[in-house]
């Protein structure tokens, strides 16, 4: 879910207020500098027609411990099965998110319905659950993780 909000350049007080609010919540020197430079660019440019703000919900991405755990055990399970780690990762994506058959110039290819990039901690946990479940069914034990934090 996302939306955009536009402020015409003619409404300078709204633009100034928006930038003042952004500057007040900047958590780093780099963010502050970027906001300040953008504000200056809008005020001095003849060709800019206004400011557009895109708003969307920020979700927590998968955690580094989750990814480290998954990659370690996915690689070991891949060795057990005679696959490369990338091949095993694809198989886990198919098991977790499903797949579709796509006809290409190179023939029919199977693609996962969703990739792991951009997943949140909950969705990535589904991928890990699939790894644990599938490996157990094939006689390979993946130890359960302690936590993700």
Describe this structure in words.
By secondary structure, this protein is α+β, with helices and mostly antiparallel strands. Helix content is 52%, strand content 17%. It has five helices and four strands; from the N terminus they run E-H-H-E-H-H-E-E-H. The chain has a two-stranded antiparallel sheet with strand order 1-2. Strands 3-4 form a two-stranded antiparallel ribbon. Helix 1 (12-25) runs antiparallel to helix 2 and helix 4 crosses helix 5 (121-137). The longest helix has 18 residues, at 64-81. It starts with a strand and ends in a 12-residue tail after the last helix. The mean pLDDT is 88.
Number of strands: 4
Q: Strand order within the widest sheet?
A: 1-2
Total helices: the number is 5
Please state the oligomeric state of the protein chains shown. Answer: single chain
Main beta sheet strand tally, sense and closure: 2 strands, antiparallel
Q: What's the helix-strand series?
A: EHHEHHEEH
Determine the strand fraction and express it as a percent band.
15-25%
- Look at the structure and give the mean pLDDT: 88
Q: Residue ranges: pLDDT <50 for 5 or more in a row? A: none
Question: Could you tell me how far the N terminus lies from the C terminus, measured between alpha carbons in angstroms?
Answer: 27 Å
Q: Helix/strand-derived class?
A: alpha+beta
